[in-house]
Design a protein that fits this description.
Radius of gyration: 17 Å
Number of domains: 1
Distance between the termini: 52 Å
Oligomer: single chain
Strand content: under 5%
Largest sheet: 2 strands, antiparallel
Number of helices: 7
Strand order of the largest sheet: 1-2
Number of strands: 2
Low-confidence stretches: 1-14, 97-101, 107-114
Shape: globular
Length: about 190
């Protein structure tokens, strides 16, 4: 893979393939990051630019990654942003609340609703459990919820049919809702 060095002493070598893809989708990545961050509580320390640039750093460290399409790259970038937000939320929770997390139903996690750190952590933990049961459904959730991708874009990124994407999205949302709702101690 071609590597290009930044100027400056000790600057890391950057992957030119990532650089090119990143520049081509920078505005869209900013839109996704902004959508996630605009509903964060007042005093959130990450900015849209911070989130996009941290995702870039994560992606540039992947020396063996090969993206089959723009949609595939966006899916991987959305996953990187999700992990950054989850790590940020976990660090805020441990500092503020001693790590005591509570479960919140999935419908309160809609992108149009504020996403408190404990909700993001609970959703991430449920998503990890879903991945052990059905990895593709977990990927669909990452693309749709965290990446803001349409059904068509998700299908393209994952190399599956749109109907399969739709079916996985419905099943995954239902499963995540049950997981988050049951963990909150509320009757089903």
């Amino acid at each position: 893979m071609n590597q290009q060095s930044q100027s400056g002493a000790g600057a890391p070598a950057l992957n030119t393939a990532v650089d090119g893809l990143f520049l081509a989708v920078y505005d869209e990545l900013r839109r996704i990051a902004h959508r996630h961050l605009q509903h964060e509580p007042t005093g959130h320390t990450l900015t849209t630019t911070d989130l996009v640039h941290q995702a870039y750093l994560t992606l540039s460290e992947q020396t063996r990654a090969q993206w089959s399409s723009r949609a595939h790259f966006m899916s991987v970038a959305a996953t990187a942003m999700r992990r950054i937000l989850i790590d940020h939320a976990r660090s805020r929770l441990s500092a503020k609340h001693g790590g005591d997390m509570k479960r919140i139903p999935l419908e309160t996690a809609a992108p149009t609703v504020a996403q408190p750190p404990d909700l993001l952590v609970a959703l991430d933990e449920a998503l990890v459990r879903l991945r052990t049961l059905d990895a593709r459904q977990a990927q669909v959730v990452e693309c749709r919820f965290f990446g803001g991708m349409t059904e068509d874009e998700t299908a393209e990124a994952l190399g599956i049919a749109v109907r399969t994407t739709r079916r996985d999205w419905v099943k995954a949302r239902s499963w995540l809702f049950r997981e988050l709702y049951a963990d909150a101690g509320e009757p089903t």
